[in-house]
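Re: weekly structure request thread

Next one in the queue (201 aa):
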Amino acid sequence: MSEQEHDEHPVCDDDEVETSLNYKPPAQKSLAEIANLDPDDESLAKYKKTLLGEGLPLVEDPNAPNVVVTRMTLVCEEAPEPISMDLTGDLVALKNTKFVLKEGVCYKVKIHFKVNKEIVSGLKYVASTYRKGVKVDKIVCMVGSYGPRAEEYEFVSMSEDAPKGLLARGTYTVKSVFTDDDKSDHLSWEWLLNLKKEWKE
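Done, posted below.
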């Protein structure tokens, strides 16, 4: 949520832009298909090694989702304590949990996630912000394409400036979605952002 966009007015939906461009993502291939694709192409082999590592990963639980989002943090050097939410637990509880952010500070969004089985293309984090039921802001962070591996990935967004001023202070409802080019809903959750004059009042 940027400083100049805290007024309560309708916000254009990026989905409308995508529809008008008639963008269609390429057909998804399995990990095995990609691994065996054009074995004589050296540049492609290097790219596949970057995404896949040395070989196909072993998935202990075949029923595990391909993408698992584990944690999101608002990274702010001025914050007196970490502003972090565990996304592996009770997401319903987050809807009533207020995360305090001081007005005017610079912050980034950090997301931890895992890819378990197949390469996922065009991951993105979308956050729609509401105040008193009216959408006042929407951000779309392009995360990228990732292959499966045992370790978590970590994505950090560009810097954002929190709004400031008397009219900007208050509680906002943020509806977050972690999705991709295929519009798969890997995780959706709601949380409350409390914009205050000071960290603790």
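The helical segments are 14-21, 31-35, 42-52, 91-94. The first helix runs from residue 14 to 21.
Next request, please.
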